[in-house]
Task: inverse folding
């Protein structure tokens, strides 16, 4: 007679068990590996850290140093040929369905581990068990699942546990999270928020928010977004088992100042992704107005501009024939050409690390003056809003 397991449950009971166990693994990845180890956004009590390390060894066989190093390299080289798993480079299908193999391939890159794997656990148990016997955990898990739930249910639960992270993290987050979805922040890479409710993958669904503020322990930013990983962190914090080191800044506004000063400059730089998000809305307004104007006077120019709208609004650099087409299309709209050029100039202000604070203040003052005398209504409104940013 086939062994039926220590627990005998209805079919839906086994489904709930599988979902519950895999959710613990998701929590371990997002809280321990991602937010704590890779980005140092929080510190965890040793008891919590050791539980997560043991659970990840048991259910995934992943090594903390490898995971943190590969993820840090992803941020450092995002959407370039050196990115370990960009769908912009490898294609969405390869990353979505075969992303785990890209992870494994990069884990053999010694240079990646040495350069990006610093600060991860290196104690006796890490060296002699978790790293040295990485596959032993999942073998032990299989035996445990078979004993607790029986041959068939146990094997199915084990297979679900083992496949959960390779598909949802290596595939969906690294693939879909850089291909489809919505964006709150106009960051340089292609990251997106897949859905506004981060439950199934622990909050990692809010991937664009994360790329905007990588060191934030909280991944949600809008009132309608939910990050279940942050909920768990807050519970751990209330129990004295976690210490949050950093969260994304929340923009604060006052009455617009007559001229930009050092406080406005500091607030603009601190909230630069919020600034870019608001500028993107202003640019979309200018784009719509100019597209409507051109449709009345020159339908051909309007169609050319419409076909390039996605790249223009996202600030994507176009080369060759497409770049020439965009430059030619912008010549037909002074307002849009001005708005696009001033977006580049605004970004350049906080990228000038060698300029003094006084120089940056003057540059931002000049930028606001030119924006408000441009005659482009959305640009005028945006500049007025820019002068109302206040330090937290």
Result:
């Amino acid at each position: 007679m086939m062994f039926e397991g220590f627990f005998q449950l209805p079919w839906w009971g086994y489904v709930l068990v599988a979902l519950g166990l895999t959710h613990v693994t998701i929590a371990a990845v997002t809280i321990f590996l991602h937010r704590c180890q890779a980005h140092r956004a929080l510190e965890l009590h040793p008891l919590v850290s050791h539980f997560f390390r043991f659970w990840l060894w048991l259910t995934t066989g992943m090594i903390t140093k490898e995971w943190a190093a590969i993820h840090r390299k992803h941020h450092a080289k995002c959407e370039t040929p050196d990115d370990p798993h960009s769908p912009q480079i490898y294609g969405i299908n390869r990353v979505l369905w075969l992303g785990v193999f890209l992870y494994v391939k990069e884990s053999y890159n010694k240079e990646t581990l040495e350069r990006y794997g610093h600060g991860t656990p290196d104690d006796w148990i890490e060296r002699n068990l978790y790293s040295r016997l990485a596959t032993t955990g999942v073998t032990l898990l299989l035996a445990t699942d078979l004993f607790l739930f029986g041959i068939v249910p146990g094997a199915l639960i084990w297979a679900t546990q083992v496949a959960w992270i390779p598909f949802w993290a290596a595939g969906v987050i690294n693939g879909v999270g850089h291909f489809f979805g919505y964006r709150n922040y106009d960051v340089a890479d292609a990251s997106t928020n897949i859905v506004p409710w981060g439950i199934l993958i622990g909050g990692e669904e809010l991937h664009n928010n994360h790329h905007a503020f990588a060191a934030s322990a909280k991944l949600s930013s809008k009132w309608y977004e939910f990050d279940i990983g942050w909920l768990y962190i807050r519970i751990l914090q209330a129990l004295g088992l976690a210490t949050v080191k950093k969260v994304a800044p929340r923009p604060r506004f006052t009455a617009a100042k007559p001229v930009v000063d050092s406080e406005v400059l500091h607030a603009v730089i601190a909230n630069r992704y919020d600034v870019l998000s608001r500028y993107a809305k202003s640019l979309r307004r200018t784009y719509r107005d100019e597209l409507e104007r051109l449709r009345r006077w020159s339908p051909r120019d309007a169609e050319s501009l419409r076909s390039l709208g996605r790249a223009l609004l996202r600030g994507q650099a176009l080369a060759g024939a497409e770049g020439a087409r965009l430059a030619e299309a912008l010549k037909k709209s002074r307002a849009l050409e001005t708005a696009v050029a001033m977006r580049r100039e605004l970004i350049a202000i906080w990228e000038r690390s060698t300029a003094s604070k006084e120089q940056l203040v003057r540059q931002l003052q000049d930028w606001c003056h030119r924006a408000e005398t441009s005659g482009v209504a959305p640009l005028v409104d945006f500049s007025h809003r820019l002068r109302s940013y206040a330090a937290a």
User: Anything to note?
Assistant: Residues 368 and 383 are 6 Å apart (CA to CA).
